[in-house]
Amino acid sequence: MTDHPERFDIVISGGSFAGLALALGLVQALGGDVRLALVDRALAAPANDAADARAFAIWAGSQAVLEALGVWAAIAPYAQAMSRIEISDSALDDGVRPTRLTYDAKTDDGRPVAHMVPAGLLHQALYDAVARDDAVKWIAPADAIGFTADAHTAAVTLSDGRVLDAALCVAAEGRRSTLRDAAGIKTMGWGYGQRGIVATVAFEMGHDGVAIQHFLPGGPFAILPLQDNRACITWSSTDAEAERVLALDDEAFLAELDLRIGGRFGAITLVGKRQSWPLDVKIARDFIAPRFALIGDAAHGVHPVAGQGVNLAFRDVAALIEVLTDAARIGLDFGHGPALERYARWRRFDSTMSAAAYDGLNRSFSVDSPILRAVRGAGLGLVDQAPALKRMIMTEAAGLSGDLPKLVRGERV
Description:
Elements: E1 6-7, E2 10-13, H1 17-30, E3 36-39, E4 55-59, H2 60-68, H3 72-75, E5 80-81, E6 84-89, E7 99-104, E8 114-118, H4 119-131, E9 136-139, E10 144-149, E11 154-158, E12 163-166, E13 168-171, H5 178-182, E14 187-203, E15 210-216, E16 219-226, E17 230-238, H6 239-246, H7 250-261, E18 268-284, E19 288-289, E20 292-294, E21 300-301, H8 309-329, H9 337-365, H10 370-384, H11 387-397
Parallel strand pairs: 1-12, 2-3, 2-13, 3-9, 6-15, 13-20
Antiparallel strand pairs: 4-8, 5-8, 6-7, 10-11, 11-12, 14-17, 14-18, 15-16, 16-17, 18-21, 19-20
Helix pairs in contact: 1-4, 1-8, 8-9
């Protein structure tokens, strides 16, 4: 441990989407009055778009945050608007897969309710914006391995022995957050016995911006539209089935995809590499500790069935920026306890209820029973015939309901 710690106002551990957005928003709100350290285990360089097969549904609330942060303009030319969302529930060998529920993917004022954005592109846009500002000091590659706090200071220890002092530390490190554990925050969660498989494909026929969610017995299978008539396939499957499919060569893998897509878009071609990871849920029991806060997957890692993980993270970011800025403007320091408690209250209900909803959705549709499938189909059909209910569901999914932070409303802090 060094004798003279480096001093900052806020230390952010984790340079992915949430950490970058938080750093950018704080600098924009507070200008040169804030000095930030951004610690990340990877080199301070944007992700390679081709190396990450993921794509995110950026719902309208998150789009508003990115617009307010000034990065949506760099993303928009490459974002694919959703025109319609179709949901079906069937067995894999069913000859016909009727669409049980369809949403017109528009907000009340006629804008797209969501856009599909490649993960690498989103990361690069955020990185480029943060890298232009001298108020943020990149410390990378580095691992934050220890955290302590007293009445006046948070201390973050790095793996090389350096110590960073700050008024506040924010962990944005993902589900396996080291600093969350160091701060003594416990988690609750469980595994699903499922793996997520992601691949990008190109279609022979146009997809017209339609997003499709097939609920299959092994888990949800989503076809998410991208530009240039491509799509991101997001596939949740049992561990055993995922192991079998991932071992296939490209031709056999495409045949498995086509079996699930049902030939709707003609011939398909694999673009890039497949990726896979185990699926679980992990929710922090507390979102704050003395001079410490959690955002993103460090606070709430949820099942990807609804594509909401990154959107929950952007709502965390918007809320924390607002809380910290309000505190700073009345002369309080960034680690002020009541301000952090306001953030925790603001985000806990949304995060916990969302995690429970996505968990229930995955579990209820993963039961392979003709009787239950008939019941689910009837329920989806009833929703499909209720326009007001569908609008409410779309508004909730878009992140446009409830007590919204200013950035989600498209306002500057």
